[in-house]
């Protein structure tokens, strides 16, 4: 398996594991099964129940082609629509817990999914899918041609690093910071603070939390306004994220 390093906008490097060939093939065949089920069900309803072929007997070729194109268009745009709606996942990818991401750390957008969709013709339907299979196996980041063109990769979410393993914190757009002096700290300082704090909370070690809060005060000159050391450290973590995101 290939490991992908993605730098977030906060300059935090997060490592992901590229989806294996087996996972990608599994997702592909699940999606293919869903598409075949749709085509089969549609054909039964239209031709066996509604006798559509008899109803269209007097239509010209262009009209019949337009009707079929409309009815079967969900099959054509299946992967494009689902990956756009579910942010990089088709139903097959969801079931196997893999996802399309940008290799520069940003969320893939519709344009990226569109490029991948265009290249499906080459990757999957030329020479029985050999171009896509070969490039996934041989490329450094396990990318098919569509991924290379779009600047994307497919990762597994089973080994995804959670936000709790980084210095990132969930803060809303309306968040108001309390301690501007927190910018005196570095990313490495915040990693140490967060890891130490999480371990202390897990062990209910109030002494370590007290010493950690005191150390933050002495290094930054910040005075704890809350009176609660745990709440103080949580605000410090959030404030650091706020200021580093908006610098």
From TrEMBL:
Q: List the subcellular locations.
A: Membrane
Residue span(s) of domain RDD: 19-151
**Keyword Hydrolase set for record:** no
Q: How does it sit in the membrane?
A: Multi-pass membrane protein
Show the Pfam families listed in the entry: RDD
Kindly list the residue ranges recorded as spanning the membrane: 25-50, 62-81, 117-138
Q: What is the protein's name according to its record?
A: Uncharacterized membrane protein YckC, RDD family
From what organism does this protein derive?
Flavobacterium anhuiense
């Amino acid at each position: 398996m290939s490991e992908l390093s993605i730098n977030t906008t906060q300059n935090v490097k997060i490592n992901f594991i590229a989806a294996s060939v087996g996972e990608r093939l599994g997702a592909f065949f699940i999606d293919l099964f869903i598409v075949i089920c749709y085509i089969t069900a549609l054909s039964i309803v239209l031709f066996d129940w509604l006798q559509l072929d008899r109803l269209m007997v007097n239509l010209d070729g262009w009209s019949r082609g337009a009707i079929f194109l409309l009815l079967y268009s969900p099959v054509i745009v299946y992967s494009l629509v689902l990956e756009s709606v579910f942010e990089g996942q088709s139903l097959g990818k969801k079931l196997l817990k893999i996802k399309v991401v940008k290799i520069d750390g940003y969320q893939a957008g519709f344009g990226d999914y569109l490029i991948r969709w265009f290249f499906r013709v080459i990757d999957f339907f030329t020479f029985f899918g050999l171009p896509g299979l070969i490039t996934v196996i041989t490329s450094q980041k396990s990318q098919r041609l569509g991924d290379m063109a779009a600047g994307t990769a497919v990762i597994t979410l089973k080994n995804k690093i959670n936000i709790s393993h980084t210095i990132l914190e969930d803060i809303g757009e309306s968040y108001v910071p309390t301690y501007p002096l927190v910018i005196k700290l570095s990313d490495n300082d915040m990693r140490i603070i967060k890891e130490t704090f999480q371990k202390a909370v897990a062990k209910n070690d109030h002494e370590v939390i007290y010493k950690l809060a005191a150390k933050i005060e002495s290094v930054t000159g910040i005075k704890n306004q809350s009176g609660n050391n745990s709440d103080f450290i949580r605000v410090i973590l959030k404030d650091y994220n706020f200021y580093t995101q908006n610098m």
